[in-house]
Design goal:
The chain is an all-alpha fold. The protein is built from 23 helices and no strands.
Length: about 450
């Protein structure tokens, strides 16, 4: 019991350090890795107390197998993220996203707002909310000179990116985790979470449009210097190969039953090959070699983010092993009498304060998925089965809830850094707007389920 308390204390301290990253000026990936190793080390100090049913001589071997099992689960998510990040980097570095800039360009401020909102929403579902936010802010800088107006657009980008990522199995790290774990399916999350996610974006956009009036000056849209040697046709080909490939990943998983990261590697291999062929055809100097391009590309991948996810997922695995997550899950159920709307609503609010990755990882440990046999014996467990109410609400709330504070999501943090948005400005101007959209989306999901129940 004492070791369990120490493990929880270490996890909480590590979590606080991660939340205070900007104050401590220590990368959260370093804290996550230290927290991971520290928690597993504490568990190894008295392993027999955590596994009383395992023979004393076999405990160490059993723990090694447990670590490998958890590492395998985390590895699938990490390889998926690395592949997706590389694909996006290829498309971006070769001018593929110029298509986005040309598609939303307009002199009307409100038209631009709606185009930015919908483009961000759907791109986030295909790419991810972090990458989409970066792309849209870079595009926005070329279209809007006024900083005051650009901040409003930037706030909407955060909300739209998080909403768009919630209804797609590949749109957010949390939905990727849930999808890979098998608690949500591609069809289930697309058909039942799409409308709530759309509502959570449209309602804030309707509110924010009143802060934007009139048209931009004729010279508002700046001339963009192309940095790529590719033709427009080649850039468009790279864009559609990258984006279309990411859309194809869930289809590939369904057809082959291979892990999702295998589909990502397939798309990466195809896209990489095509860009190498384009480079070879348009080579202009001896320095434009394959080795140089590959090294430049890989150096831009954010490995610190990958290390952060690894540390967090493996640290949460320790809490799962010692039974803390199960106890928390039972406590929440008892406190709220199995009200999954209230439980997930609270989780969504928490995700605006702390990182939603460990929150979702913790929930997957607290609430194991119910199998068909379990549901047959106890129909009340239907909410915990694949595509059950609990898992779909978790995907929605953990993703959309992060918009309520600027530090509540990866999209918010990166936009905060790029546009120098203060915590106070966002809290005053955007938090209540995001919260209204969040509640409206949950209400939409409840209506969906109510109508489905009436028709059944």
């Amino acid at each position: 019991m004492t070791l369990t308390v120490l493990i929880v204390a270490l996890f909480v301290i590590g979590y606080l350090c991660i939340a205070l990253e900007s104050v401590l000026e220590i990368n959260k990936a370093a804290i996550a890795l230290l927290m991971c190793v520290g928690c597993w080390t504490l568990l190894m100090m008295a392993p027999a107390s955590f596994y009383p049913d395992i023979a004393e001589g076999s405990v160490i071997h059993h723990i090694a197998e447990v670590i490998e099992h958890h590492l395998g689960d985390a590895g699938g998510t990490l390889f998926f993220l690395m592949g997706a990040m590389t694909i996006v980097e290829i498309v971006d570095s070769n001018g593929g996203f110029n298509f986005v800039r040309d598609a939303i360009k307009t002199r009307s401020k409100r038209k631009l707002m709606w185009r930015v909102a919908f483009m961000t929403f759907f791109l986030s579902a295909i790419l991810d909310n972090l990458t989409t936010s970066i792309v849209m802010i870079m595009v926005l800088r070329k279209l809007v000179q006024s900083r005051e107006e650009r901040l409003i657009y930037a706030g909407l980008i955060i909300i739209s990116a998080n909403s768009g990522g919630a209804f797609s199995p590949i749109g957010d790290v949390t939905t990727i985790m849930l999808w890979i774990k098998g608690v949500i399916s591609t069809q289930g999350v697309l058909t039942e979470i799409f409308l709530p996610s759309l509502v959570s974006m449209v309602i804030p956009a309707l509110i924010l449009q009143y802060a934007l009036k009139g048209k931009f000056d004729k010279d508002q849209n700046l001339t963009v210097t192309e940095v790529t040697t590719f033709t427009k046709a080649q850039r468009n080909a790279i864009f559609w190969l990258g984006v279309g490939g990411l859309v194809f990943v869930p289809v590939f998983k369904t057809l082959t039953h291979l892990p999702p990261f295998m589909g990502i590697l397939l798309v990466l291999g195809v896209l990489w090959t095509v860009t190498e062929v384009f480079h070879r055809v348009r080579r202009t100097s001896e320095d434009d070699t394959m080795a140089k391009r590959v090294s430049d590309l890989l150096s831009k991948i954010d490995l610190s983010t990958i290390m952060f996810f690894l540390g967090i997922l493996m640290a949460v695995a320790v809490l799962q092993e010692v039974g803390v997550l199960t106890a928390m899950g039972e406590g929440l159920n008892e406190a709220f009498s199995g009200n999954y709307y209230l439980i997930n609503g609270i989780i969504g609010v928490l995700s605006s304060v702390v990182d939603n990755v460990p929150l979702v990882a913790g929930c997957m440990g607290m609430y194991p998925m119910a199998t068909a046999d379990m549901v047959a014996q106890n129909p009340e467990l239907a909410a915990m089965a694949q595509d059950g109410i609990f898992w779909q609400l978790l995907a929605y709330c953990a993703g959309v809830g992060g918009s309520m504070l600027i530090i509540g999501s990866a999209a918010g943090v990166v936009v905060m850094g790029l546009e120098k948005i203060t915590f106070g400005w966002y809290l005053k101007r955007m938090s209540w707007v995001a919260f209204v959209g969040y509640l409206a989306g949950m209400g939409c999901y409840w209506v969906e389920k109510f109508i489905a129940g009436m028709l059944a």
